[in-house]
Structure formats: C-alpha cells, structure tokens
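Lay summary. Proteins are chains of building blocks that fold into shapes, and those shapes determine what they do. In this project we predict the shape from the chain. Here is one chain we studied, written as its sequence of building blocks.
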Amino acid sequence: MKFRVERDVLADAVAWAARSLPVRPSVPVLAGLLIETSPENSSESGGSDPAGSGLVLSTFDYETSARATLPADVAEEGRALVSGRLLADICRSLPNKPVEMAVEGAKVSLTCGSARFSLQTMPVEEYPALPDMPAATGTVSSESFASAVAQAVVAAGRDDMLPVLTGVRIEIEGPSISLLATDRFRLSHRELGWQPGSTDASVAALVPARVLADTAKSLTAGSEVTIALASSGAGEGIIGFEGSAGGGVRRTTTRLLDGEFPKVRTLFPSQHATIARVDKASLIESVKRVSLVAERNTAVQMAFAEGMLTLDAGSGDEAQASESLEASVNGEDITTGFNPQFLLDGLTAIESPVVEMAFTQASKPAVMAGAGSLDADADADFRYLLMPRRLLS
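And here is the predicted shape, written in a compact code that computers can read:
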C-alpha cells in the first residue's frame, strides 16, 4: 500500500472516522482504523465513488461503523490497520504539506514535509467486516436534518438501565419524518420534510440518540444526507446515513435499539386553558439568574397572570430570587414550576424568537413551542412537553 494525499483532506477524514472508536474496545483490533487503497473504489450502493482513485478509512465496534472515502494518488493497492486515535493525533499536528503513507514490513510509514512517523500495524485479517448499507430510503437537507436531530435529542434519556428511552424514534411516512424522544419527564417531537425514494414509504426505527446526534452534526459538509433504512429483509436492524465531504463520501451505520418505544403522541393535549408567549432570550436569562438560588431537585416557580410572568426560586431561610417579565397571557391565571435545567433545555432547543407555553392545569405537563412574535401562532414543527415539579410550600 502506498499513496499520497492532501494533509487537510486526510486529517479531516481521519478525525471523522476516529470519532466512532470505542473507548474500551472489547478486542484490541477495534481500536484500529482500517486504511484501504484501490484505483477504483466501488461504493456499496453500486457504481464508483465520486472520488475515483482513492482511499477508504473505516472504523467499527460491532455497533456503529464509519467509512470515509477521499481522493488520493494511489501508487500501490493494499490495506493496513493502525491505531486510530494515534493516527488522528498525528494528522492533526502535521504541517500543511502533502502526506505520503506506505506499508513497510510490519509498519506504516507516514511522511509530511520533514516530519516522518512509523506506526505499528495491527493484524488486519482479524478486523471484522463492516455491515452493508440497507437500500436508500430517501434524502434530506443536511442542515435541516442536523437542526431537527439537535432539537429531538434534548429529551432523550441517559439512563442505560432504560435503553429504549436512550433512543430517538424515527418515523417515516411519505414525504415527512417525525423524530420523537422522551426520558419520562419530558418529550420532544420534531417534524421535517424530505425526499423519499418511494412516495408511499412507511417505516420506523429506534436509533441511539448519541450516535444520531453525532452523525447528523458530522454530515453537514454536503447539501444532502441519504437515509438508508430497511423495512424488512436485508439490512433490517441497521440504519445508515451517507453524505459528501472533502471530495468523497462519508457513511455511517448503526444498529437499532430493541424494544417498544412508548406511544407518546397522545400525551400532547388537544386543548389548553392558558396560553402564554414570552420573549425567548429574556426568559432564558431570567431562568438562569433565578435558578442560581434553587436547591438541588427543586423547581423554579412560574406564575402567569395578565401581561406578566413572575419567576421565583428558593424558600424559607435560604436564598431567594424573584423576577418578572412581560408576557402575552390568554386564558386563566396559572402558577406551576419546572426543573430549571429541563426548562432551559427546551427553551434553548426552540429556534424562534418567542416561546409559547400552553397549559391545561398546573399539575399537568406544559407544551412549549416557538413563535415568530408575541401575537403569532406557534410553529408546528417542534414541540417540547415538560412535566411540572411539585412546588415547595
């Protein structure tokens, strides 16, 4: 194996592939990054990669795989397995000059300008084969997808004892995608449009939230992301994402979570007794200030009355804080309270300048959404449902 590649292209692709390396690999070879060269690298979906002659970098931990193709001048075909994190560190530190890599016996040599490194290879024959991508289901704008995923994962659980709740449920129905996540205390629901490969596409999957968030963020270099999800047959139990970057293609697959995601859509109430709208930036700053005196596991109280929202925290002989904001309030006066961090998570996920909070009663969950102004209706694409906390008397 011998090739020459631009330093920035290589460093970016190695860093992208190495991000999926396991912290504690079950077997030593899973800490490796597989380097493969071929004059005609064929993509798994058929045809040749747009990069033509080039290089393929891969990582895999039996759950999540990452594969990056990039343009390179290949002198000799071959493959080698080296420490992925070490290679990433080296590539990040190289001078801005072309990089040459070649296999020399049991080592891989890397030369960049006057810098030269020699890396010990790992047994490439022991490295597992990467899973194939399922057939492409459709494409979506990479920026829109990254934004939608970032909003959805806010409510995903982090307790590995409840693995189903650590995932995001992706529901594909014709030209729309729904993203749902919950940790039992809050619920996020994001809708976005896309271009399905089939107009009657109907499929659902439960994807690990951490992997989904990382993948969506990392595939924004190109204009589109291809989502590959099998409804049955070959590739079932795996979801794949593919996008372009650095003149090549980046592809990630991950195993789906097992288990039945709770039927959460019915938790969103159809009617509300009180609807309040508040400037989002002002509310975020107020919640941050007031919550400074909130003891652990206590709520920030929110009292909505005509034209005003009053926030309170702290009680008894301890420190206390209070602050009032202008608000548009329609309906009955209401006083309730929320976990301040969960409240901030929802507010930060909303992209509009105004937040709408809709209530049925103080002891029931509130629904948060964005709005263009204090007089505008709420946006329908993102909703965040938050359970109230008991207020201290």
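What the prediction tells us: Residues 41-52 have pLDDT under 50 and may be disordered.
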